[in-house]
Design goal:
Distance between the termini: 38 Å
Largest sheet: 13 strands, mixed
Length: 365
Amino acid sequence: MIQFESLPNELLLNLFEYFKTIELFQIFYGLNSRFNILLYNYYRNYHLDFRFISKRDFLIFSDHHLPQIINHIVSLRIGDEYETPGLPYIFHFLGYSLREFIHLQYLSLHDIELSIFIEYFNDISQLNNLISLTITNCNISFYETKEMNFFNQIWLLPKLKYFHINTDYLKYINNFQINHHSSTLEHIYIHTSCEFSYYNLINIIEYTSNLQYISMSIEALNKYEMLTFNLSSIINLKLKYRGETNILKNLLQNTPNLQELHIRMMNTYLTGHEWKEIIKNYLPCLKILNFQICIRYLPNENVKIPYDEFLNTFRTSFWLDEHQWYICSDKYPDEYSIQNQQIDLINQQLQRLFQEYQNLWTYSN
């Protein structure tokens, strides 16, 4: 212990980086005054994860240490989960509010009921240093104007780059409307039990000038709802898409810098020839294409999708030789399921499996 204490402060502060915040205080706080001063006054990179903490440890930490370091906390994760039932309520009941975390950059909220989430939401707009916001399975079943205000408040955060929300509680997405520009948001992931309209997608993109990645479920049924501006900032697009093929073509024709496309098409499709035309003429930067096509039909329909003829459109030199993109298909009594595979990604997976097997073989011998 004497040799450890002889280390300079710089090395000790670097060492602290390898510990979770709760563990850091459990191990080092109280050893002597020097460690206490380092923890309270000099260390500036606290990451708090309250999802897997006992109630006893949480109460001790929030009572003795949290008030001393609250200005130095960089990330916070909190949720009402199996391991921490009622913790968001206890956190609020103890008098803490998110606006006190003035240097917070990363915030993750999980499984929080509506009454508590409203209190948290009122504080989020005050987090001017926030870079990343993740909301998972939280009850945000606001009334209509409050739900719209929720998204607009997020777009107003001055440094936010990453916004991730996954919840089944959004009810008014058909009236979804962003009214404030964000010049910082780059990564948006919005998934709910419902589908957004193509107009919602256009609205988000229009008010997010530096958007690079977006993941959403889209229903585009109005064939006249076309994109009229270029989406040059988008490099990664992930969609669950249902609707008109000409609208999908319109979207892809306006993403000239797209490098990665993941799309699951429901009851609609593009042939291999149509994909080739779009890629060659409009997507010069595309490196990764991953699509899945799910097409349902009624057993008594007279006209069905010509299955073999459709697959043949992907058996050309463009797909097999130039890009080494291959198609996998399953045919069920009432559904086609078709998806592509890239040979380089397959090789990476095989190499990873081989390496794992080799490591296991080396270990066992």
